[in-house]
Design a protein that fits this description.
Blueprint (H helix, E strand, L loop, with lengths): L1 H20 L2 E4 L27 E4 L6 H10 L4 E4 L1 H9 L6 E10 L8 E5 L14 E4 L5 H12 L9 E4 L5 H6 L6 E2 L8 H6 E6 H5 L2 E9 H6 L1 H19 L4 H12 L25 H13 L16 H9 L2
Parallel strand pairs: 1-2, 6-7
Antiparallel strand pairs: 3-10, 4-10, 5-8, 5-9
Helix pairs in contact: 9-12
Length: 331
């Protein structure tokens, strides 16, 4: 009986050990690439050395931030891309009080890197922000990061977005046609649409997001503290792989291969993607570290223009210890 008991205990221990060794499933959502790296991570198996070992990766696609916040709140995904505006919405409206920002994806207007342009037609007669009075402005939705930049810039120049201009809502892929076809006098352009030859020929930049907000912590990764605590080791392994991929993509000697990878994935012509991971693209912190000072400033702007009633202390909702741990492994 004692031998049988010992055997049973050993067998149970072996089963438990096997269960613990199972890779952790990490579900990371995304909306737009090549701005977001998520959907192509698994295409570089030589760099994602922990994938399939300590973690597995699922990359569900969503149309936008509201759906992803809901998915995180209900446990349908584990990590989501978070804009500074999404952070406040998730905490104050969706009541995800344990939301934690864990890594940077990309930033707007850092140094001489890319900043989203707000463009007018060359023949519009609009040469300064004050000239927008009485004009039609296209936004992709009230409260988006670039919408906030637009409203902040109008106010800096003495214009009231509720009285002095007419704002219409157009999704980002259709901004080019809205401007070229004269449906809007000002359109906000993001990559890759801002590099469209037709919009470059017809339009000119009136101002940029950097002009309006300064450096912007545009997209970060957010997760829930409960998931991070339960799966810390696997998440650190995942972030180590992401760091390795990000650095490889950012190395100029790999640029042609990176363009081909994104072209194959998105089914776009390679010549339309030459900007990716260059200074004509958004800034990506080589350590995936979030600019918390810029993030706090961005959130304060939301309150200043009346999109939120109360601000938040962003440091309370950040946990960069995981990505810092991952980064130490690569030094």
């Amino acid at each position: 009986m004692k031998l049988w008991g010992i055997a049973a205990v050993l067998a149970a221990g072996m089963v438990a050990g096997a269960a613990q060794a199972e890779p952790v499933k990490i579900r990371v959502s995304w909306a737009v690439t090549p701005g977001e790296l998520t959907p192509v991570l698994s295409l570089k198996p030589d760099l994602t050395t922990h994938l399939g070992k300590s973690y597995t990766l699922e990359t569900p696609h969503f149309a936008g931030s509201p759906e992803m916040v809901t998915a995180l709140a209900t446990g349908a995904v584990d990590i989501i891309p978070v804009a500074f505006s999404t952070l406040v919405t998730a905490v104050q409206n969706a009541k995800i009080d344990d939301l934690r920002i864990i890594a940077d994806e990309f930033q707007d207007g850092v140094g001489d890197y890319y900043s989203n342009p707000f463009m007018v037609r060359k023949d519009s007669g609009i040469n300064k922000v004050e000239d927008l009075k009485g004009k039609v402005i296209a936004t992709n939705g009230a409260g988006s990061p670039i919408d906030i930049a637009m409203r902040a810039m109008l106010r800096k120049h003495g214009l009231d977005e509720k009285k002095d201009v007419t704002i219409i809502e157009i999704n980002l892929p259709n901004m080019r046609s809205a401007l070229v076809e004269r449906k809007a006098d000002l359109a906000m352009l993001v990559t890759p649409f801002s590099f469209d030859p037709a919009v470059r020929e017809a339009g000119k930049t009136l101002f940029t997001t950097k002009d309006a907000l300064g450096p912007t912590e545009f997209i970060m990764w957010g997760s829930r503290a409960s998931f991070l605590t339960a799966n810390r080791a696997a998440v650190v392994d995942f972030l180590e792989d992401v760091l390795r991929v990000t650095r490889w993509f950012s190395d100029p000697k790999n640029h042609d291969a990176v363009v081909k990878l994104f072209a194959d994935f998105t089914k776009r012509a390679p010549e339309t993607l030459g900007y990716v991971y260059t200074k004509s693209d958004y800034f990506r912190d080589p350590g995936l570290l979030v600019n918390l000072a810029a993030l706090q400033s961005n959130v304060e702007t939301e309150k200043e223009i009346g999109l939120i009633k109360t601000t938040i202390d962003v440091k309370r909702y950040a946990d960069l210890s995981l990505v810092e741990e991952a980064g130490k492994r690569l030094k």
